[in-house]
Specification:
364 residues, 37% helix, single chain, four-stranded antiparallel β-sheet, 17 strands, alpha/beta, globular, 11 helices, seven-stranded mixed β-sheet, Four Helix Bundle (Hemerythrin (Met), subunit A), Rossmann fold
């Protein structure tokens, strides 16, 4: 991995892009989201190990973006493996280890596993040592396709979600669900962008999203780039602004949605849904179909990532708590489907009963 500050992304915010035309020399350029908003630093990635580290260390984050990065990680891994391993070793040892290393980076975001499953048929059971250039081309094409389809899905979701919002909408959102978290444009923030494009957005309330501050650092950054009318608030201010009648709707993303319509999202989301129920405010979730996991029947069975204590006790290098204090840090919580007004996907908007409507999204 090498630092590269000389390249700049297109105006459309996106967390990563492919650079180069050669299968052997091409690489991924990724924006280090840990440094935003103070610095815009890009790194070049050329190996699967580097991609896995970028996901685990949150250089890149956001469920769809994690899946995209993992797909490119498979390409880099296969590109390196076929140079030094024979067919039997690849199929029985090296490829399973590659996929497992990528799968272990973040447990909650199902888009990661969805993307890896899309890549598996391209490599398992095939002789990668024969006509390796053609195989690599297929793998890279699939990675490109996953990223492009995600962006197109976001644009479609934006239109579907915008139709749910009132004129002069004052919308509250949590965490970061914009271009930085996806292939571009965004899920929940994509809906907000679509409302703004229609000239119907009055204001965005941006939750800071403790402890990692994705709202304060990332969503606020995207809102300012797009010149969206917005105000940053601490998480515990949301109830106040709802009580004051200044929030018309809440829309968030998701890292995994179970078959019963329950949604795992950044910690603090469940509390917002409870507040919306009390104040009679619609609570929406925007997520692509790749976020829905029909194999998990109920939200309580969604695995919840436990992250480091330091992210709670420190902001950067500055300590906020006494040394040695015990810390809990579940990175996500689960909002039951009964608190979700509607789920916005690229195939349309679904409502309760979610066991029926969510499953219907996958019917031809």
């Amino acid at each position: 991995m090498s630092e590269n500050q000389s390249h700049h992304f297109d105006t459309q915010v996106a967390p990563l892009r492919w650079v180069g035309t050669s299968l052997q020399d091409g690489y991924i350029q990724m924006l280090d989201q840990r440094l935003l908003p103070q610095q815009e630093v890009y790194y070049d990635y050329r190996t699967a190990d580097e991609i896995a580290a970028s996901i685990k260390d949150m250089v890149i984050r956001g469920a769809p973006a994690i899946g995209i990065a993992a797909a490119y990680g498979v390409f880099f891994g296969v590109r390196d493996l076929i140079k030094v391993h024979d067919h039997t070793s690849l199929q029985e040892k090296e490829l399973p280890a590659l996929f497992e290393a990528l799968a272990q980076t973040r447990p909650t975001a199902v888009n990661l596993f969805w993307a890896l499953d899309k890549m598996k048929p391209l490599v398992f059971g095939r002789d990668l040592t024969q006509d390796s250039e053609a195989v690599l081309e297929e793998i890279l094409t699939m990675a490109h396709q996953i990223m492009e389809e995600d962006r197109e899905n976001n644009l479609t979701m934006g239109r579907h979600g915008a139709a749910l919002m009132p004129d002069n909408a004052r919308i509250l959102t949590h965490c970061n669900t914009g271009g930085l978290a996806t292939g571009g444009y965004g899920t929940a923030l994509g809906v907000i962008r679509a409302v703004h494009a229609e000239g119907r957005l009055a204001h965005v309330w941006v939750d800071e999203t403790r402890p990692y501050l994705q709202g304060a650092r990332l969503t606020a950054w995207e809102c300012m780039k797009d010149e969206l009318p917005s105000t940053l608030i601490t998480d515990n201010m949301a109830a106040y602004f709802m009580q004051q009648g200044k929030v018309d709707a809440v829309i968030v993303g998701a890292d995994r949605i179970s078959a019963d319509g329950s949604a795992a999202n950044k910690i603090g989301t469940y509390g917002l849904a409870v507040l919306c129920k009390h104040h009679n405010i619609p609570f929406y979730v925007a997520a692509p179909l790749s976020t829905i996991d029909l194999e998990i029947a109920e939200g309580r069975d969604i695995p919840i990532e436990q992250r480091s204590a330091r992210e709670v006790t420190h902001v950067g290098d500055r300590a906020l708590a006494p040394e040695g204090m015990q810390v809990a840090h579940p990175a996500f919580d689960v909002t039951p489907g009964e608190l979700i007004t509607a789920i916005v996907t690229e195939k349309g908007v679904v409502r309760a009963p979610y066991n029926d409507s969510v499953a219907a999204l996958f019917e031809d």
